[in-house]
Design brief:
Distance between the termini: 28 Å
Strand order of the largest sheet: 1-5-7-8
Largest sheet: 4 strands, mixed
CATH architecture of the largest domain: Up-down Bundle
CATH topology of the largest domain: Four Helix Bundle (Hemerythrin (Met), subunit A)
Strand content: 15-25%
Number of strands: 12
Structural class: alpha/beta
Order of helices and strands: EEEEEEHEEHHHHHHHEHEHEEH
Radius of gyration: 21 Å
Helix content: 40-55%
CATH class of the largest domain: Mainly Alpha
Number of helices: 11
Length: 348
């Protein structure tokens, strides 16, 4: 699938022949061929009506992210006629016991992945703090596996995340990247900015996979319904955060492919803004344009990394694994399988 990222906030797309031209400050800064284009990811970019019509005509999935890197929405032509799939989703998710059963699988998988990752790094780095955190998170995973109350399941997930990010600094092996806790809206330091952006990209991957299989991405279980939030995608992305998100970010940072000097810092009094330029000026920290493009390139190489799918015993990619898991979740909802099995990550 041909996809293109436009990472220049305040830019505009205009159609010219068989291309989209990226304009910023009345100057063309890039071109996007329309032929074979299947997905656009836009960060703070505006579209003309003519461009929107062309993208819809060509059925190009267009993902809109805020200047902070948060998901805002997407332009997609829904072709699915599989009413039975969404009906099964609505029926199963409306049963409180079934909803808890599904949610706790997501939480159990997330916590076990985090525990295994910390345990592995504890052995490599000789860190007692990482080892203890891994044991605590594994205990929470076992509790989540049998919990019957939805709020308790969510609480266990939150406790696990607090423990995990409480020792996250020990996973950073180079100076300059101070991490004192997870901050999101907005991220207040380079590491949080990298994590937030990566999680947004991963959620977009899952959202695309959910749409492909014909489910409703806005109705989940672990994440409560909220206007505009793709709750099912937020549920399903949990099993990918550590192995696809955190490992990518930590690998780039620890190899010094990304440095603190690759970020712009600002002293701001508030994070509110009235337009894209104002929002941009109020971001406490952001990647410089060059490193943002390099980061996206690294992300694309990462998602196209080959991996063997143990369920089918065939070679695919990380992106392919995400789509395979969406199909497996669909089969579970359609009662073709007894339970949804999260991806069994190797000990990496």
């Amino acid at each position: 699938m041909d996809r293109y990222y436009v990472l220049e906030p305040g830019s505009q797309l205009r159609k010219q022949g068989e291309e989209l031209i990226i304009w910023r400050k009345n100057e063309p800064i890039g071109r996007i061929p329309l032929e074979n284009l299947e997905q656009l990811v836009l960060v703070g970019t505006s579209l003309s009506g003519a461009v929107i019509q062309e993208l819809m005509r060509r059925r190009v999935e267009t993902v809109l992210l805020s200047p902070w890197g948060h998901f805002r929405g997407r332009i997609v032509v829904d072709e699915h006629k599989h009413v039975a799939r969404r009906k099964a989703q609505y029926l199963r998710f409306s049963d409180p016991k079934e909803a808890v059963r599904i949610a706790r699988r997501f939480v159990e998988a997330k916590l076990k992945n985090a525990a295994r990752f910390l345990s592995r790094r504890a052995g490599q780095y000789g860190s007692e703090g990482l080892r203890q955190a891994a044991g605590q998170i594994l205990g929470l995973a076992r509790m989540a596996a049998v919990e019957e109350d939805m709020e308790m399941v969510r609480g266990l997930e939150g406790r696990g995340a607090n423990i995990y990010f409480g020792v996250f600094q020990e996973l950073i092996r180079v100076p300059g990247f101070a991490f004192t806790g997870r901050t999101k809206r907005p991220p207040l330091d380079p590491m949080n900015a990298l994590l937030s952006f990566t999680y947004t990209l991963l959620t977009n991957e899952v959202l695309t996979a959910v749409n492909i299989v014909g489910l409703d991405p806005y109705l989940g279980t672990l994440h409560a319904e909220d206007y505009g939030r793709p709750s099912l995608a937020c549920d399903l992305v949990e099993e990918w955060r550590v192995h696809l998100g955190d490992r990518l970010v930590l690998g780039l940072v620890n190899r010094r492919a990304v440095t603190p000097e690759d970020f712009v810092w600002r002293e701001v009094a508030a994070a509110d803004g009235v337009d894209e330029e104002d929002l941009r000026s109020h971001r406490p920290v952001e990647m410089k344009p060059r490193i943002a493009r390099a980061f996206v390139d690294a992300y694309e190489r990462w998602m196209n990394s080959p991996i063997r799918c143990p369920f089918a015993n065939t070679m695919t990619t990380y992106r392919g694994i995400i789509r395979n898991q969406a199909r497996r979740f669909l089969r579970f909802l359609m009662r073709e399988t007894e339970a949804y099995e999260p991806f069994p990550w190797p000990l990496l």
